Amino acid sequence: MTVSLLHPDDLEPSLLARGTYASRRRFTYIDAAVLLGLMLCLLMLIPAKLIVPNMTDLGRPGLIIAVLLFAWWVLARFSPRLTMVGPQPLRWVVLLYLLSILASYAVGFLRGLTTMEANSADRAVLFTLAFIGVALVVADGMPNWSRLELVLKVFVGCAAFMAVVGLLQFVLWTDVTVYLMVPGLEPKGFVPGFEVRGSGIRVASTTMHYIEFSAVMATALPFAIHFARFAATRQARQIFFVLALLVAAGIPATVSRTGFLAAALALLVMVPVWTWRMRYNMLVLATLLLAGVTLVKPGLIETVWGLFTGASEDPSVTSRTDRYDMIYSYFVQRPWFGRGTGTWVSPQYQYLDNQWFAQALTTGIVGVAVLALVHITATALAVLAVRRASREVDKHLCAALASTQLIGIAVAFTFDSFSFTTYATILWLMVGGCAAVWRFTHPQRTVRTSAPRRFGQETGARSTVRS
Predict the structure, then answer these.
(1) Which one is predicted more confidently, 288 or 411?
(2) Residue 58: DSSP 8-state
(3) Considering its fold, how many domains does the chain have in total?
(4) Range of the domain at 39
C-alpha cells in the first residue's frame, strides 16, 4: 500500500504556470471572485446616485449583488454537500456583530419608532446583511491567492477609473458623471456638487461624498502599489504603476484631511515589509507627485497644509465638536443597546459625521464593542498571515489588507462611513480578505483549502492507493 504525500485539496493552481487556474471543486466560469468583481464594477463605475427604479438606497445594482451574495453564503452553509471544511474566526465575530445589530433593532421597536425611523431601521438591517455577506463570501469563497488577487486587481482598476473621473471634475470644474448615466436606472437622493475649499474644489467622483471618495482612494492605494511591484509581467507592472499614480493623484483632488490621514496610515503599515530600495523609490515618487500637484495647482499644497494647522478653527471640525454634548445626552438615555439600529435619521435629527458616535447612539456600547472587535480580529488575522507567509509577495499583500482596517477605524471618526455604501462595502470586502489570507497561510491543509466537505472526504479516500 502506498500513500500519496500530496493532498489533492492542497493543490495551488497558480503554481503550475502563469495564468493557470484549476478549480478545487469543478470547472466553472462563474465563482465568488467573478461575482465580487462584478459587484465592484457596478458599485464604483456607476454613480452612487443611480438606483433601480422604485427602490430605496438598496436599489444600487452593486448592493443587490451583495445581498444575493449573503443569500448564497447562507445556502452554502446549510447544505451538507457544500459546507466548507475547517474553522474560520471571522464567522464567529460576524455572528456577534449581526446579533448585536438585531438586538438593537428589536430594542428600537420596543421603544416605539416613527415611520421614518422604522423604515430606516429596516434598511440598516438589509445593509448589514449585504456587508457581512460580502465579507463571508470572500473569507470562505476564495479558493486561492490567484482568485483573491483577481478581485483586488478589479478593485484597483475601478479605483483608477474613479480617480480619472475625479481628476476631470477637479481640473475642468465640470460634473462628468452626467455622462455615466445607465439606461434603466434613475437618480435618487442627494447629488454631490462641488465645494470650494481654499484654492481648489472638492470632488466626489462616482461616490456620494468627498470624504468617501478620498477613503476609497486611500484604501486602493496599497493594492495599486502591490501590483505595480509584484504583477507577473513587466507590462502588467507598468500598467499598475500608472494606475497607482492615478489613485494617488485622486486623493488631493478631494481636498480632504481624511484622505491624507488614511493614505499615511496605509503607507505606515506597508513600510515595514518594504525593502530599503522600495522605501527610497516611494520617497522619490511621492516627491515627484507633490511637485506635479504644486505645478498644476500652486495653492493646493498650502490649502491642504492649512487643513491640519488650522483644524481648531475649521467650521467642519468645530461643528463636529459642538455636537458632543447633544450626543452624550442621547447616549446616556440608552447606553447599552442604543436607540435602535438605523434609527438616527440624519435629516430628521442632525448629521453626526462620526460612525463611532452613530454606532454608539443606535447600537450602544455593545454595538461599538462588537464593531471594534471586527476590526481587531481582521487586523490580527492579516498580521498573523504576514508572519506565516513564506513569499515576499504574500507578506506584502497581507500587510496591505491589514492597513485597510486601520483606515476603517480612523475614517469612521471623520464621517458616517457605513452610510456611504461604496466605501462601506469595500471595507467589509477587506475584512473578508483578511480572513481569507489567514486561511491561505494556515499550517493545516484542511483549513487553508476551500474544498467542500464531501469533496474533501472523497479525495481523502483516494489518497490511499491499494497495490
Answers:
(1) 411
(2) G
(3) 1
(4) 30-445
